Amino acid sequence: MDEARLNELIIKYLNQVATPAEQQELEAWLVAHPASKLEIELLRDYWQANHLKNADLDQAYARLQDKIAQAERLHKQAKPFHAIRSIAVQAGKRAAMLLLGILLAGGAYQIWHHRHADNQPPKNWELTYDQPGIKSKLILPDSTEVWLNGDTRLYYPRSFGRQTREVWLSGEAYFKVKHDPNKLFIIHTSKMNIKVLGTEFNVKCYPDDPLYETSLINGAILVTLKDRPEDRIILKPREKLVVLNDQVLVQKHGEASKPISPALSEKPMSKLWVTDIHYFSPQDSVLLETGWIEGKLVFRDENFLELAKRFERWYGYHFRFLDDSVKQYHFTGIFEHETLEQALKALQLAERFHFQIQDQDSTVMIY
To answer: pTM of the entire structure?
Structure first.
């Protein structure tokens, strides 16, 4: 079995998403390599430990090295067990290297020092832009599939895939990255960089939104923020990292007429937190985070001001509120084939307001 396949099986085992056939394949390999069983057990212990959730990977690595050093000291003090201790020490060393190898090469994210201090893509990179009201699918030269939501910009170099696979994102995109063990796929945003080899996840990073989100569907991601490199968070499938957009948050706190999104009240003292991705309802298979790639505008307990932003990206119309009190209304629902007028009339069934659609300048007046 080659290293790439072994890493893939171990990742799925750690995430508890391996199929019975994949579990048998890994078990067969362990039978043929019994000394590696200890490595896998060490990896599993570190993977499942809660301290990795918000811990520095380097510290975790150091702790593992300390455990190896302790084994070496015990080995020197107990020569009769020389063979056994040597196996344990060597397994621990391999596990330490494998821990880093899995996180770096097996669908993980780690800090990457951006070469551009202004958090902007290089000027010579190609631009793919989805205007408000437009959604599209893009296939990159390496066969990676990318779905772009409205008002999204994706930049990538003309030489994409030759040596590295890098893109720069502003907006929202769903990535299904083509697995390539020799070339990491890197997504740059203004707040974070994301490294993967082959996995599926959604990134939402609109500059004027109060929250940035990374939602993991399959694989494993280790997130490090650009302005807080000491915070590293391992995401597992069906988990979401939420990061406050400080610049927008400060502005919103200073403007009483612009209510804060309900999600912000969940962790008022934190700048980032991890939560589960959400289904629209217990009886529904639609995810709030990725329903848009299925052509569904999904929202739950969302205030009208934030929902209007999503309407702008979905329908391509600009919203203006003539009555500030209307911004406080909250809505829950799913729109799929509704026109803008049909969607607004549906909202009127829940709350009392008026609207006027001006097609000549693509503006909606709410009062």
So the answer is: 0.67
